Amino acid sequence: MPSIRLLALFFFLFFSVHSQEDTPIARFLRYLQFNTAHPNPSYADPISFLISQANAIGLHARTLEFTPSKPLLLLTWPGSNPSLPSVLFNSHLDSVPAEPSKWIYPPFSATLAPDGKIYARGAQDEKCIAMQYLEAIRNLKANGFTPSRTVHISYVPDEEIGGFDGSAKFAESKEFKDLNVGFVLDEGQASTGEEFRVFYADRSPWGLIIKATGDPGHGSRLYDNGAMENLMKSVEVITKFRESQFDIVKSGEAMNSEVISVNPVYLKAGIPSPTGFVMNMQPSEAEAGFDLRLPPTADPDLIKKRIAEE
Ligand SMILES: [Zn+2]
């Protein structure tokens, strides 16, 4: 099939030309190829790449390791007045997992499709931001600009799983204190246009797990206080709350980031059988997980109380 072979050759040429060039897009594609997905993100390889980029631009680089095998990269662009508080740009190295079978292109192939779209896990969250910091500094340096304040960039591990071994330990460290940071800019959001949006507040994530218990019984019987029934009652309450919040967004009264979002992320219930689940048995336990996000305007204690009451 010559046409398919030709197409494959076209893709190969298209991709290899782009990945060998030393352009912002080519550098971005190279950074996207590191498999940084949990549960086993590669940290050493992307850090070596970032260090080579830092060296090329003329930034100081050092690696800190607060937890073994979880390095943090710190780049520094000295300012003309180092006594001023510094500026820190933060970015995380890791990405959420991908389901490769559901991708048009493999998630870490960093494919630049003929329509100009780039496909890669972590491209928006947030490898694009990691590379934008470097590209911006590269341009500023090329134009002879020197900042008065020292600029640092931190590339932290484990952000997607809570950051306990990454930014949490960094923020507590002597190394961080010594940076004399006056202003931090963390990840924003990928932008499809020329503008770069920054945010001054973020929602705090809560993992809400509801574990329901109840009387086990035959699937043919109607009775009160079954685990699944109890769970479904809670799910109904949460679904109604979710709708009320989403309605506020849909009506234009508030933005997505201003309401409390809650989304179901897993369900765990049923008695496994060789062919799936036992169909004529009501289980004694059932569980559901929700991703809850609270804007700074929501009172966490009030939400805790409401969840307990419901
Ligand atoms: Zn992120």
Keywords:
3-stranded antiparallel β-sheet, 310 residues, Alpha-Beta Plaits, 14 strands, 35% helix, Aminopeptidase, binds zinc ion, alpha+beta, single chain, 5-stranded mixed β-sheet, 24% strand, signal, N-acyl_aa_amidohydrolase, elongated
Structure description:
By secondary structure, this protein is an alpha+beta fold. It contains eight helices and 14 strands. The chain has helices at 2-20, 24-32, 44-57, 123-142, 167-172, 174-178, 227-250, 300-309; strands at 60-67, 70-77, 86-92, 111-112, 118-119, 151-156, 181-185, 204-213, 217-218, 261-269, 272-273, 276-277, 281-282, 285-294. It has a five-stranded mixed β-sheet with strand order 1-2-6-3-7. The protein has a three-stranded antiparallel β-sheet with strand order 8-14-10, with helices on one face. It has a two-stranded antiparallel ribbon with strand order 4-5. A hairpin with a 2-residue loop joins β1 and β2 (70-77). The protein is elongated and about 80 Å long. It starts with a helix and ends with a helix. The site of zinc ion has 5 residues, from α4.
